[in-house]
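Dear support,

Our group has been running a series of protein-ligand predictions, and this particular one with iron/sulfur cluster is the one our PI (initials K.S.) wants archived with full inputs and outputs. We had some confusion internally about which version of the output was final, so please treat the block below as the authoritative record. The input we submitted was:
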Amino acid sequence: MRIEVNMEQKLNQGFPFWKTKALAEMTVAEWESLCDGCGKCCLFKIEDTDTGRVHYTDIACRMLDLNTCRCKIYEHRFEVIKDCLSLTYTKLQEIDWLPESCAYRRLYEGKDLPSWHPLVSGSQDTVRQASISVCGRALPELSVDLLTIDDHIVDWFD
Ligand code: SF4
Ligand code: SF4
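Confirmed final output from the archive:
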C-alpha cells in the first residue's frame, strides 16, 4: 500500500493538481483556487419557465465588488445573500448554467484550463484581458429597477 502511494506521488510530480486529481478529490484550497473570479455566477439570472433555459443579465449581486470582481463578504456570504450559490461537487453535477469558461464546468466536462486562467497564466489580469470577467461590464444591483430585469438579459458567451 505504501509503495502504491509513493508511485502515485512520482507519477504526479510536475503536473498541476487539476490534471492529476478528480474534482471530488480536491482539497478545499484547491477547489477554491479553480474559480477564476469572472463574476458571472454573481449576476442575476432569469429562468424561462417554459424551456428551463437560464438567461444571464448584466446585473450584479450587490455584494460583488465591480472593480475586482470579488465578493465583498466571501467568508459569510451565505448568511447575507440567501440565494448565493454554494458550488460543491454535488451541486456542479446538478446545474447546467455555469458559463463554458468556468473552470469547474470545464474540468467536469473533461477539458483543461485555458491559457488565460490564473492558475495557468500566473496572473489574475488575464481573466479581464481575455474578456472573461464581468468587471467594468456589469451594473450594480442597487442601480437597477429589477422590474426591468428582462431588458438586462445579456449573452455573455458569444
Ligand atoms: S462562473 Fe465559475 S469561475 Fe466564474 S466566478 Fe463563478 S465559479 Fe468562479
Ligand atoms: S454574495 Fe458574493 S459570492 Fe454570493 S452572489 Fe453575491 S457577490 Fe457573488
